[in-house]
Amino acid sequence: xxxxxxxxxxxxxxxxxxxxxxxxxxxxxxxxxxxxxxxxxxxxxxxxxxxxxxxxxxxxxxxxxxxxxxxxxxxxxxxxxxxxxxxxxxxxxxxxxxxxxxxxxxxxxxxxxxxxxxxxxxxxxxxxxxxxxx
Length: 134
Hints:
By secondary structure, the chain is of the alpha/beta class. About 15% of the residues lie in helices and about 35% in strands. The termini are far apart.
């Protein structure tokens, strides 16, 4: 196969704010970056086997830049990510089972919806808070 992967390219309103969210909050790391004149203009970020690219709008961004855009990350343990994201100051949704997956959601500063999901055999519509703690 000639095609290796698809990498979402997100235009963002503030590269500084987005880097704080994706790198400091979600734990992404830089794979590549473009910094003409010492200013970060574009980057390719990775988290495990997932990648995405960010670039700041050259002009004023539209008010609804992320509207209708969702990214779905398939994970080993979405609940662990939920706790990790909360410890980093983010506000992910309480994990809930849907379609045989634990799913937690967090929105980026531009309104892009990010879903993190992992397989489970827990009944549909179960929320994390409904699971008895051991």
